[in-house]
Design goal:
CATH architecture of the largest domain: Sandwich
Distance between the termini: 34 Å
Radius of gyration: 18 Å
Helix content: 10-25%
CATH class of the largest domain: Mainly Beta
CATH superfamily of the largest domain: Macroglobulin (MG2) domain
Structural class: alpha+beta
Largest sheet: 6 strands, mixed
Number of helices: 2
Number of domains: 2
Low-confidence stretches: 1-7
Number of strands: 13
Length: 186
């Protein structure tokens, strides 16, 4: 029996994420995309990452592979200019007529900084990510966020840090670049 897309309400694509959290224009960078699926029925027959195009269509960019409930794929991105890239994850189920899709996921392409500035920002973001994750596991989100913000504000080049939805942190650098540090996902 095939279910309509409305009958497949117990299936969803929850968290979609990418590592690194942003790339720099004109630099070829491997990006790991991941998605966690919630399913009340059979496993999907296919899961793929789609890139949303400016014309309103989309293009499949890679098939995602499942490991312990997490679907991942790696692609190399090299964008000519700064801006946002849109992606979505699509899962085909054998008993559902229409594919299940995630909400759009937007990925930041940063421009206008020197190689030295880029490396310093990425290093700060990576170190903050490790700190945020480790504190959250031991002391919870509130304390992890408080300590991570305090640490970030002591780092060279960081102008401000603002709390975003879902415990994410917006880190503003003196170069004018703003990067999002995603909260740990359980």
């Amino acid at each position: 029996m095939l279910l309509s897309s409305a009958g497949a309400a117990d299936r969803s694509i929850d968290t979609v994420a990418a590592e690194p959290p942003a790339i720099f224009a004109r630099d070829a960078t491997k990006v790991l995309f991941s998605a966690r699926l919630t399913s009340g029925g059979p496993a999907p027959s296919r899961v793929k990452l789609l890139r949303l195009q400016a014309a309103g269509n989309e293009r499949a960019v890679c098939s995602m592979v499942e490991t312990h409930g997490l679907y991942t794929c790696t692609i190399k991105l090299k964008e000519p200019s700064a801006g946002l890239l849109g992606f979505t994850v699509e899962a085909d189920y054998p008993d559902v007529v229409a594919p299940v899709r995630s909400k759009p996921f937007f990925y930041n392409v940063i421009g206008g900084s020197s190689s030295k500035e880029r490396n310093a920002m990425l290093k700060t973001q990576q170190r903050a990510r490790v700190l945020y994750d480790s504190i959250q596991k031991d002391k919870g989100f509130a304390e992890a966020q408080r300590q991570t913000v305090a640490w970030l504000l002591k780092q060279p080049g960081v102008v401000s840090v603002r709390s975003e939805v879902n415990h994410d942190l917006a880190v503003q650098y003196n170069s004018g670049i703003r990067m999002i540090l995603e909260a740990p996902r359980n």
